[in-house]
Design brief:
Blueprint: H1 9-20, H2 26-38, H3 40-56, H4 66-81
Helix pairs in contact: 1-2, 1-3
Length: 82
């Protein structure tokens, strides 16, 4: 058994933003990278997150229709209220 406690898929999902931003503590980084090496589903999830960031990083406000913009703002507002 590893000296480092294994990371679950749910924990990876919770840490993925910090991972992609380079903000994980070294212990969590090691656990996440070990998990990715052995979990195809999480490897796919991580690739999807990277692609989402890449694609959405190229969007401008002009790319959104007024309906989509309203929907996104409403969703964000609902989320922010909790």
């Amino acid at each position: 058994m590893n000296a480092v406690e294994a990371l679950s898929c749910q924990e990876l999902v919770e840490l993925v933003t910090d991972y992609l931003e380079g903000a994980l503590a070294s212990g969590d980084l090691r656990r996440l990278e070990e998990h990715i090496e052995g979990c195809g589903k999480c490897t796919t999830y991580l690739a999807q997150m990277r692609e989402t960031i890449r694609v959405t990083g190229t969007l401008t406000p002009e790319d959104l229709s007024p309906d989509v913009e309203r929907e996104l703002l409403a969703l964000f507002s609902d989320w922010a209220r909790g």
